[in-house]
């Protein structure tokens, strides 16, 4: 029994507008169905989609999860930055300093993301969405490796990373200390390979905790990982 990563979901005040922004930045097509809102096909070897789910939650701090977008050249990096700014992004200071080679931006709802300079070997071959960089512990990295069946591709000095056996986006955790919960953030939506309740019990045994009824219903079960990040286990599809 296992789950697959069905979606990386954004809490969104304006799901349609935010989906249009990310579709334009990443060149993605809209999915025929969203699990709870608007969805885009990621076109990524890791197999997930991007979902934009309506939420009234207010953002109170820096996101724990953000995308690192890869670049093939300096010109490519500059084009990605210009495209994002033209679609409504803004420059964002998260303490990166004036000499940083990466560019930090925020989307129209304040979700931070980075456009990484070319030559980053860790992101080589991962696609445009090179990584989903997460603030989190080594424990949570191991939890998600077991939950998704994605092998660890980095496990050193409290930092961990996993990647789908098919390749694509890496998911990374930077180790302690853990940033405060920002309220409005990105979340994982999982689909079980088999019985939903049996998969929920497996995840609980791995270290997840029950949170309550998932917003929006649709039979989803809302859990939290060992670091307290909420995620949904959807019904089997």
Estimate nothing, just give the exact number of structural domains: 1
CATH fold title = 2,3-Dihydroxybiphenyl 1,2-Dioxygenase, domain 1
Mean pLDDT: 94
Radius of gyration: 17 Å
Q: For the record, give the distance between the C-alpha atoms at the N and C termini, rounded to a whole number.
A: 15 Å
Share in β-strands: 25-35%
Q: What is the element layout, followed by pairings?
A:
Layout: E1 3-12, H1 15-26, E2 29-30, E3 38-41, E4 49-54, E5 65-69, H2 74-86, E6 90-91, E7 103-106, E8 112-115, E9 129-134, H3 138-148, E10 152-156, E11 159-163, E12 170-173, E13 186-192, H4 196-206, E14 209-213, E15 221-224, E16 230-233
Parallel strand pairs: 1-4, 5-8, 9-12, 13-16
Antiparallel strand pairs: 1-13, 2-3, 3-4, 5-9, 6-7, 7-8, 10-11, 11-12, 14-15, 15-16
Describe the model:
With 237 residues, the chain is α+β, with helices and mostly antiparallel strands. It has one domain: 2,3-Dihydroxybiphenyl 1,2-Dioxygenase, domain 1, CATH 3.10.180.10. 20% of the residues lie in helices and 32% in strands. It contains four helices and 16 strands. An eight-stranded mixed beta sheet has the order 2-3-4-1-13-16-15-14. The chain has an eight-stranded mixed beta sheet with strand order 6-7-8-5-9-12-11-10, covered by helices on one side. A hairpin with a 7-residue loop joins strand 2 and strand 3. It is globular, with a radius of gyration of 17 Å. The mean pLDDT is 94.
């Amino acid at each position: 029994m296992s789950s697959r990563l069905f979606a990386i979901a954004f809490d969104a005040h304006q799901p349609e507008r935010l989906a249009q922004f990310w579709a334009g930045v990443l060149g993605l097509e809209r999915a025929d169905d969203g699990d709870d809102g608007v969805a885009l096909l990621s076109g990524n070897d890791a197999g997930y989609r991007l979902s934009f789910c309506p939420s009234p939650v207010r953002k109170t701090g820096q996101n724990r999860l953000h995308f690192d977008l890869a670049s093939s050249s300096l010109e490519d990096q500059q084009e990605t930055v210009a495209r994002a700014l033209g679609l409504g992004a803004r420059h964002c200071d998260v303490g990166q300093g004036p000499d940083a080679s990466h560019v930090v931006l925020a989307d129209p709802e304040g979700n931070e993301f980075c456009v990484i300079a070319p030559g980053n070997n860790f992101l080589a071959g991962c696609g445009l969405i090179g990584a989903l960089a997460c603030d989190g512990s080594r424990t949570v990295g191991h939890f998600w490796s077991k939950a998704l069946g994605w092998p660890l591709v980095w496990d050193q000095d409290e930092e961990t990373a996993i990647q789908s056996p098919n390749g694509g986006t890496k998911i990374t955790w930077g180790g302690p200390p853990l940033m405060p919960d920002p309220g409005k953030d990105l979340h994982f939506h999982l689909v079980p390979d088999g019985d939903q309740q049996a998969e929920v019990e497996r995840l609980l045994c791995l270290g997840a905790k029950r949170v309550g009824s998932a917003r929006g219903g649709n039979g989803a079960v809302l859990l939290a990982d060992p670091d307290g990040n909420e995620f949904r286990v959807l019904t089997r599809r």
